[in-house]
Design brief:
By secondary structure, this protein is α/β, with parallel strands linked by helices. The chain is built from 13 helices and 6 strands. It has a 4-stranded mixed β-sheet with strand order 4-3-6-5. It has a two-stranded parallel ribbon with strand order 1-2. Helix 5 links the parallel strand 1 and strand 2. Helix 7 runs parallel beside helix 12. The longest helix has 24 residues. The protein is globular and about 55 Å long. The chain binds fe (ii) ion.
Length: 297
């Protein structure tokens, strides 16, 4: 009865009961689970010092994450909430797109509670608590970044309103699929894999990079990675694959810059520019679509 990714009966039974939001049954973490956290944290720390942006490093300090054991979300939230109002909210796994963005709007971050296997620290079949709490949550201590996430959440409501006004069902589904794809791409190339300028050169702010021992270094040092100033029209039309290091990364100037881009994304959505983005990954599934169609805004 541990909380290991792919082998956590507590989480699996919540999923099969359809429970998205759960508690963190801290007593179920095994010694092996804590050891996985210890090793992940210890090997990441020097890489954060070299490659992570300042906001993130300050966030790690202000959350008082314990390098020796998996954090209790309640403790993390005690430090986080007074800073930006954000809190980590335990979930059983995948959250359909609208609900995910709506959580952000309410300053809640859906957070996985399982941790990867100790004998496969570099293999991540799905997000785990190290990715979510050590990779994402420190960013939520930064006010400008937190406001950007809230704006993302508001964009999802705008999308739901737009598609609710489309009478023809086929057009409605096509438009919604395209808008979700555009939002997912933008989120991927910024919140998950973004790079940011700093006086010392490029630094990482995307959580997919901040939680990956191998890719954080690769993202800044490999000659094979293409790094370009972000352009909204490019990011929303650019497909990506999740099963290898990212070959293309986008750079923002600051979180104020990112905040403005999310506002622009919403404007483009209203103008119809997101209604026919280029085909390709990521796939939009039925649960994502239904999550937008079921709400009344
Ligand atoms: Fe993530």
């Amino acid at each position: 009865m541990a909380l290991t990714t792919g082998a956590a009966p507590f989480v699996e039974s919540a999923r099969s009961d359809g429970e998205l939001y759960i508690r963190q049954p801290y007593e179920l973490y095994s010694e092996e689970n804590h050891e996985a956290w210890r090793r992940l944290y210890a090997r990441m720390l020097p890489r954060w010092e070299r490659y992570a942006n300042d906001h993130f490093r300050r966030g790690v300090t202000s959350l008082c994450l314990d390098p020796r054991s998996i954090p209790k979300l309640d403790d993390v939230n005690c430090f986080l909430r007074p800073l930006t109002g954000f809190q980590a909210k335990a979930v059983s796994g995948y959250i359909p797109a609208f609900l995910f963005f709506d959580c952000l709007r309410n300053r809640e971050f859906p957070t996985t509670i399982t941790i990867r296997r100790l004998d496969a620290l570099d293999y991540l079949p799905e997000p785990d608590i190290f990715h979510d709490v050590a990779g994402h949550v420190p960013m939520h201590t930064d006010r400008a970044f937190a406001e950007t996430l809230v704006r993302f959440g508001e964009c999802a409501h705008t999308a739901a309103e737009i598609v609710a006004g489309i009478r023809d069902e086929e057009t409605r589904l096509h438009t919604l699929t395209s808008i979700i794809k555009a939002m997912a791409r933008f989120f991927w190339f910024t919140i998950e894999f973004g790079l940011m300028r700093s006086p010392e050169g490029l630094r990482v702010y995307g959580s997919g990079l901040l939680s990956s021992f191998g890719e954080i270094e690769h993202s800044l040092n490999s000659a094979e990675v293409q790094r370009y100033p972000i352009e909204l029209e490019w990011a929303i039309n650019q497909a990506f694959e999740i099963n290898h290091y990212q070959p293309l990364l986008f750079i923002v100037d600051s979180f104020d810059h990112l905040f403005k881009l999310v506002g622009e994304l919403e404007q483009w959505m209203k103008q119809g520019k997101l209604s026919h983005v280029a085909p390709g990954e990521p796939a939009v599934n039925e649960r994502d679509l239904q999550s937008f169609l079921r709400i009344t805004t």
